[in-house]
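[step 3/7] fold_predict: job queued, chain A
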Amino acid sequence: VGFRASNGTYTANEGQVERVTEPLSVMGGKLSIDRFLSLTGGPSVASTRIRSQMKNGAHYFAHSVIKGDQATSASQFNGLQARATSSTQKLANGSTANGTPLSLAKLDSAISNVMDPTHIFMSVAMRDRMSAAMRSSTISGNINMTVDQFGKSVMTYNGLKIIAIGGAAHV
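[step 4/7] structure written:
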């Protein structure tokens, strides 16, 4: 794309396409239920164990989306942290040795660098800090709590739903 002189020609400058593939990563687990417990405890024993296994799998998958690293385990996929290795893809909140207080201006800058953002993913600990900021009249900014169609509380920042992943150990 460009300008040309009258009766001139355009210079070819088509874009380059880089083929990228992602290997298949199979995730699952094995669940054993003691037959005696199942017979004496009734169907609730099995359903409780299955529900617990599914919840554990969901937490593990969410953790892997951020922290997954094929260098650590060749059978898993690379998460966002392993993919975003360039310093140009990261926004540092500060450079002090002990960390810098949360900056909503830096969060706004990160959101501005994403095309059509829909959600904000963060650790549970960071979501708790956002919740504390929401209660502070000096910080709150555009942090809001709403209720979704299922009656569940949803935290948003500038209209973007905040999704907390992992737990305290995954900060």
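[step 5/7] annotate
The longest helix spans residues 43-67.
DSSP finds five helices and four strands in the chain.
exit 0
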